[in-house]
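Bumping my old thread because nobody answered last time. Still need a sequence for this structure:
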C-alpha cells in the first residue's frame, strides 16, 4: 500500500472513530471533545491539499513506505 493510500485510509478511519466517540447518539460515545480531533484531521487534510505538508506522510516515508498514486 502506498503512502497516499495509507494517509487517506488513516484519515477516514480517524474521522469515523472520533465522530462515533463524540456524538451522543453513538453507542460508543465518550465525550463531545472528540469532535475537536475530527476537526483537526479535516483541517489537516485541507491544508495538505494546498501545501503538500502532511506529518503522517513524512512519518511513513521515514519508515520506508513508497509513494504511489492516490487513485
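Sorry it took so long. Here it is:
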Amino acid at each position: 500500500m502506498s503512502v497516499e493510500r495509507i494517509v487517506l485510509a488513516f484519515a477516514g478511519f480517524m474521522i469515523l472513530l472520533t465522530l462515533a466517540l463524540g456524538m451522543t447518539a453513538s453507542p460508543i460515545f465518550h465525550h463531545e471533545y472528540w469532535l475537536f480531533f475530527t476537526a483537526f484531521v479535516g483541517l489537516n487534510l485541507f491544508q495538505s491539499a494546498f501545501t503538500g505538508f502532511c506529518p503522517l506522510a513524512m512519518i511513513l516515508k521515514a519508515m520506508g513506505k513508497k509513494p504511489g498514486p492516490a487513485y
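The chain has a mean pLDDT of 93. Let me know if any region looks off to you.
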